[in-house]
Amino acid sequence: MTTMTEEPGNPSIEAGIAAFTVTLIIRRFDPETMSEPIWQDFDVEMYPTDRVLDALHKIKWEQDGSLSFRRSCAHGICGSDAMRINGRNRLACKTLIKDLDISQPIYVEAIKGLPLEKDLIVDMEPFFASYREIQPFLIASKEPKDGKERIQSVAQRAVFDDTTKCILCAACTSSCPVFWTDGQYFGPAAIVNAHRFIFDSRDEGAAVRLDILNDKEGVWRCRTTFNCSEACPRGIEVTKAIAEVKNAVLSGRPSIPTA
Ligand code: SF4
Ligand code: FES
Asked: What span, in angstroms and rounded, lies between the C-alpha atoms of 162 and 128?
């Protein structure tokens, strides 16, 4: 039923926007009291301008303070609130309730393939271990010519521009069926972040990273299912980046414009 809530100062009320009740069915898990996760439903009154993150806040603040999830920026930047919403990996802070089918319950659960800690929280350490392994930092032995800047042309910057946008949310890696079945696979996010440095004309560590990714748990595990590209909230062409790294491994060097 459509209702209006008396909430002074609420911009949706001031704009005359109608509220509606939506049901969230959340996969809950408490390691101290449960052996298996259970699904629990909550009805919440929301506005079309609200996001799934707002619904989770409302549940936590008004119905069940024990509901656990990660979030920080609430604006698609920190990457901490990736979760499965209606079976698809998304950021809760970037998913508007009105863009989902609100005639049906909204299913929310933790991302897959990483150890479940509590409710919507997983242990991200295996994910960050793979990220660290590809050496995600500039490797440069020489001082810049003027002692200040390592100059790069627009064309040289363009080849890795897309992969600079990664916010390490793990939506790609945890949507990959290979990662679900083989916990050793580096996963798309680590390869995206390797790409960001392999194709950087100022970097000297490409050979080391290509060697790391030529490992049996490296790029060749990718089966090009495109789940990663579909899941990425930053719109990064993840599968394309992986293909470019595969080509660089085969040729022994990345293809970078000389100027
Ligand atoms: S590539 Fe996209 S989905 Fe994967 S970790 Fe980076 S931002 Fe998240
Ligand atoms: S809370 Fe920071 S990306 Fe969603």
From this structure: 20
Atom of ligand 2 nearest to the CA of 93: 4
> Is the Cβ–Cβ distance between 106 and 52 less than 8 Å?
yes
pLDDT digits (tens, 9 = 90+) for 184-238: 899 999 999 999 999 999 999 999 999 999 998 899 999 999 999 999 999 999 9
> Would you give the DSSP letter of residue 44?
E
Q: How do beta strands 38-46 and 82-85 pair?
A: unpaired
> Phi first, then psi: what are they for 199, rounded to 5°?
-95, 10
Q: Three-state DSSP class for 48? A: coil
Which amino acid belongs to residue 235? Answer: G
**Gap between the Cα atoms of 161 and 114, Å rounded:** 28
Neighbouring residues of 79: CB distance < 8 A, sequence distance ≥ 6? 91, 167, 168, 169, 170
Helix (H) or strand (E) holding 158: helix 154-158
Using CA positions, which residue lies closest to atom 1 of ligand 2?
74
Q: Provide the β-strand partners of residue 24.
A: 42, 106
* Nearest ligand, measured from the Cα of 69: 2
CB of 255 within 8 A of CB of 247?
Answer: yes
pTM for the model: 0.92
